[in-house]
Amino acid sequence: MRFALVTGCPRSGTTPMVGWLGTSPHVLALCESRRTLAVHRYVEEAKRFKSTFEEWPLLRERLRAFTFDLYAGGTRLVVDKEPLEPVAFPAGDYAAYLSNMVHVLDARFVFMVRDPVVTIGEMIVRLWGYSLTAGEPVGMTIERAISIWKDATKLALERVGRTSRLQSYERLVADPRRESIAICKFLEVVLPEAAFPVQTIQPKRLPEQAVELIRAETAELWNEVQAITES
């Protein structure tokens, strides 16, 4: 059994990506099951103590087997979704989480990335925290949303390679068939009958001052993303 994680900044297309991959034969797709977060927390605690750290090879194999049992035995590829955002990661330990997914589950990553103005615009008009058992949902400032987009995009760019794919949402919209084939080739799964379902979403209209701030803060990273995904 193999594992792939769809991740990146929230509101970047992770949900439709997981839904589409789930239509491929022999793929089990889940949307924020939070099981990978539990694995991450366990590993971080295990690293703190000498006794568990010294037993890591054995613990890793048992944790890996236990995790796959939680998903579904016999499935060829398990795909889960976990955006990099502060509700799931209040400590902002995104890099450690990704590393733990590799160490325990030999994860492959599909990093979704989308125009920062559209993404951040959608992040700041909603409330966050509905999935938590305690506390009230809260809003997000534009400065916080920009920081999250930049952190997620930096990690995506750092990990581009054999086991990580940087996937532009805009490229999916422009050429869904071509991009769908490339994604399935990367994940080594059968191509679903239908190409990625392009969703026509009306972007949230932001004040011009907010748009200028987002563009100024994200331009360098966004240019890097476009250079990779359009090559």
Notes on the structure:
- Helix content is 52%, strand content 11%.
- The protein has ten helices and five strands; from the N terminus they run βαβαααβαβααβααα.
- The mean pLDDT is 92.
- Strands 2-3-1-4-5 form a five-stranded parallel β-sheet, sandwiched between helices.
- α2 (35-48) runs antiparallel to α4, α2 packs across α5 (94-105) and α6 packs across α7 (142-159).
Give a concise summary.
This protein has 231 residues and is an alpha/beta fold. It contains ten helices and five strands, in the order E-H-E-H-H-H-E-H-E-H-H-E-H-H-H.
Spans of 5+ residues with little confidence (pLDDT < 50)?
Answer: none
Helix-strand string:
EHEHHHEHEHHEHHH
Number of strands: 5
Cα Rg: 18 Å
Which terms summarize this structure?
231 residues; alpha/beta
What's the layout of helices and strands?
Blueprint: E1 2-8, H1 14-21, E2 27-29, H2 35-48, H3 50-54, H4 56-71, E3 77-81, H5 94-105, E4 108-113, H6 116-123, H7 142-159, E5 164-168, H8 169-174, H9 176-187, H10 208-229
Parallel strand pairs: 1-3, 1-4, 2-3, 4-5
Helix pairs in contact: 2-4, 2-5, 6-7, 7-10
